[in-house]
Amino acid sequence: MKPLNVGVIGAGIMGQKHIKTYLSKKNCLLVGVVEKDISKYESLQESFNVPIYKDIYCLLDNVEAVSIATPASTHYELAKFLLENKKHVLLEKPMTYTVNQANDLIKIAKDNNIILAVGHIERFNPVFGVLYRILSEEQPFFIEIHREGPYDPRIFDVDVIMDFMIHDLDLLTHLYNDRLLLKSAYGINIFSEKSDIVSAQLFEKNGTMINITSNRASEQRKRKWKLLFHNKTIEIDLLNRKISYFEQKDGLAHIISDYYNSIDPLILEINNFLDCITNGSKPTVDGIQGLNALSLSEQIQLIVSRQNNSLMVI
Description:
By secondary structure, this protein is α/β, with parallel strands linked by helices. It has helices at residues 13-23, 41-48, 57-60, 75-84, 99-111, 126-137, 160-176, 265-279, 287-313; strands at 4-9, 28-34, 52-53, 65-68, 88-92, 116-119, 142-148, 180-188, 197-204, 209-215, 222-228, 232-237, 242-249, 252-259. 37% of the residues lie in helices and 28% in strands.
């Protein structure tokens, strides 16, 4: 079968990861990269030896599928243009700025019979499969989620909800579908004009309490879920792909830890995208699922905004 001609728009840190992954695959041919920052051209040519274009139109006639790894504020217009021109799109998270924009992209993709996949990479993390199985078998009474990392000034157009938290919101909406109730949320600014630390409290309709905190003002990197059951605690480390089980038996604490070393989740994500194009199947994270995470993100943003405004009035 003839390799798919693919392109990448945006050659920042994430875009370069897409470039490397496409170049490593035999079922596709990376025919070009679109990058507006001309200061990157020389290093990109040296690193990857692929054509670099300043304009998306230069790439349009040569590709069947495109990864978009640009700032979130550009996602909607770029994806809309490509989908309308019948190009399959893998769109990095967050898929758009607003729910209305996301709905529009979903409709355009459907009308043109084109694949729209969203880059929620944690869905391809091997420990998420274990987490999914655990929660399908037993219900915890409390889930605590923490995602932390250093502030990156290059992420200028989104808050920590869209930058960090949306990864975990995607996992939650996939796990619990429409059974989540958002109760409260709080946020503060540290380094930017947008929220850099946000904590939100949710309930799953069958009784599980969920506390989720995202922090992009931390020196350490953390991606952890803690599940509390009546007889045990399970810690899920998404960053190090480790699951630890803590149980009390006969008055003694028992700890068992399992590590899951597997292929890079981005490789799995791009494999899924290319396979869907070839087979006409549904992506693991399609536009609807990207929309679900975005919708919950918007709800949290609204509550944080109201809370901040009330504090200003006081």
